Amino acid sequence: SQLLENKVCIVTGAAGINGIGLRTAKLFYEHGANIVITDVNEQACDEVRALFEAGRCLVMVSNVTSKEDCQKVADAVVEKFGRIDVLVNNAGITQPVKFDEIQPQDYDKILDVNLRGMLYMSQAVTPQMKHQASGSIVNTSSVSAQRGGGIFGGPHYSAAKAGMLGLGKAMARELGAYGIRVNSVTPGLIATDITGGKLDDAMKQKILEGIPLNRLGTPEDVAKAFLFLASDLSGYITGATIDVNGGMHIH
Ligand code: NAD
């Protein structure tokens, strides 16, 4: 069945061919949505355009850390589709360094893309959602926020992802009156390119020992949780955090 028929859904950081974002855009598209893919990677944007019918898709090179870029996306979406129903804040970067090794510029980069990006994109879409008196915003945090890292990203990544949970809850409280729901997903270890080949077999084996479902997650596992939170199936859920981690962190 079609859970997002005629809905207009933006997914940030969604041009990576093996990423959670593109898998999410594809699943939303299969469910009838018009999809908007943004990504800072120009070449990747060019490659994904061909995957979708032009009338039902908008692909934009855009940096979530730029307030101006975020506003341009919101404006272009309203111009092309007339509304904005869903925003999935998925753009994110990580860095596997230790506490002592975090440099000022690393801190800025990790906090800016993950946390500031969520703020700017959300600020860009909420005026239209308020105008419609409906909308769903879904944020991609991480199990790293809940257990203090220890999987792949460094402490600054944990901080950024934990910040996203706090910001998301505060947004849910403030925006509920306008019919806008805000929820977060905390994925465990998902097999994508984000680890940049730095996750070796020994590391993987060690991580698997702590996962009751005994496998790494797939982008599809996360995309399905996003679909639930984006659609009316979750119509009375806001301010929630949904774990998609195979039981890696049961709390
Ligand atoms: P990915 O690297 O495939 O996807 C991230 C995408 O974001 C890339 O396409 C990248 O070009 C884009 N991006 C980076 N900086 C950007 C910016 N400034 N503006 C716009 N786009 C930008 O990785 P992924 O694993 O699919 O990650 C998706 C999200 O899931 C991220 O927020 C990540 O932190 C989160 N996450 C991933 C895992 C995992 O194990 N893979 C676990 C928990 C959370």
TrEMBL record:
GO molecular function: oxidoreductase activity, acting on the CH-OH group of donors, NAD or NADP as acceptor
Coiled coil: none
A Pfam entry, by short name: adh_short_C2
One GO BP: fatty acid elongation
Protein name (record): SDR family oxidoreductase
Source taxon at top rank: Bacteria
Family according to the record: Belongs to the short-chain dehydrogenases/reductases (SDR) family.
